[in-house]
């Protein structure tokens, strides 16, 4: 089952908490709802560090080389993996949250207030349908980087739990007690988010987040400009729009440390945005970078069933159970 990042991901979470479906089915997610994905992403950060250190004798042994990671961020899963890498001992000077125009995380870093900012109508329009952009009734802005089009970041609460445990549980000798305090604090914030559309954290919480993170906001226009600029580099690298957001933020925020901008998708996955940026560039032919597996894909039949969140959890449950029963009958 594929879902748009928002709002359908909320329905998926409800699905995982549904006792009826869990009594008959074993569920798994392949996105960052599943913590196993975040665990796997931790390796990116160590691999990047070791690649840089390999060219600088003694660096990897001494741990003296500080590195800065810039991560295109929507649901906060990939950059959360970087946070765990740092807690495991990787010498990370800063993790830079690179946002698109859905900038709840950037605004939080500026103000300490985590607040939905829904936009609708003409203000919400944008993006490219061919690359997966879609209208969101909850007020998400459509952009050229649709995998980052979110109203709230579902993994951010995981970061807040660790910060809350370190701050509010610091005077508790019992490890379990500190965890419970953190859980209650995060629940309090999440309740405010659901009831009021946002919450504000105490200054010490914001300071703790800022100690490890910074944030940059990149517009669609800047995304297109970055794809074009990097294509004109001697290497002629072609970025997808999400990776371009990381590169734009990295170029803007460089401060002397070694810096890695994470690339998160193949440009062929978001072909229309790439073509929009590079159509006038001399020598550019998108087919030259199209993976063999993609050739002819658009001509093949599509098998899609759309499920609206308004149909409710019960409808989705019946659909999944019905499909599973049909597959069992074929076996």
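^ structure tokens above, recovered residues below v
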């Amino acid at each position: 089952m594929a879902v748009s990042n928002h709002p359908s991901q909320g329905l998926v979470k409800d699905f995982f908490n549904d006792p009826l479906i869990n009594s008959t089915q074993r569920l798994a997610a392949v996105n960052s709802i599943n913590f196993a994905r975040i665990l796997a992403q931790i390796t990116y950060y160590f691999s990047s560090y070791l690649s840089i250190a390999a060219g600088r004798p003694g660096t990897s042994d001494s741990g003296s080389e500080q590195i800065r990671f810039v991560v295109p961020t929507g649901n906060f899963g990939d950059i959360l993996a970087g946070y765990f890498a740092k807690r495991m001992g990787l010498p990370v000077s800063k993790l830079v949250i690179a946002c698109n125009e859905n900038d709840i995380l950037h605004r939080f870093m500026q103000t300490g207030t985590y607040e939905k900012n829904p936009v609708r109508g003409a203000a919400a329009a944008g993006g490219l349908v061919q690359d997966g952009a879609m209208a969101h009734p909850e007020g998400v802005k459509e952009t050229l980087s649709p995998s980052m089009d979110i109203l709230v970041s579902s993994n951010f609460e995981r970061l807040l739990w660790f910060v809350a445990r370190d701050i509010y549980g610091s005077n508790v000798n019992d490890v379990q007690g500190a965890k419970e305090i953190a859980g209650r604090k995060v629940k309090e914030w999440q309740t405010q988010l659901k009831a009021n559309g946002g919450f504000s954290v105490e200054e010490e919480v914001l300071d703790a987040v800022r100690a490890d993170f910074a944030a940059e906001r990149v517009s669609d226009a800047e995304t297109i400009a970055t794809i074009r600029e990097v294509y004109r580099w001697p290497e002629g690298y072609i970025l997808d729009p999400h990776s371009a957001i990381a590169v734009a933020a990295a170029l803007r925020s460089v401060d002397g440390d070694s810096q890695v901008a994470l690339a998160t998708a193949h440009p062929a996955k978001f072909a229309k945005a790439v073509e929009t940026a590079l159509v006038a560039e001399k020598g550019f032919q998108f087919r030259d970078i199209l993976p063999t597996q993609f050739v002819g894909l658009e001509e093949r039949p599509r098998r899609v069933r759309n499920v609206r969140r308004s149909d409710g959890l019960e409808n989705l449950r019946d659909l999944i159970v019905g499909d599973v029963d049909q597959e069992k009958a074929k076996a």
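The beta strands are 67-72, 92-99, 113-115, 198-200, 213-217, 258-261.
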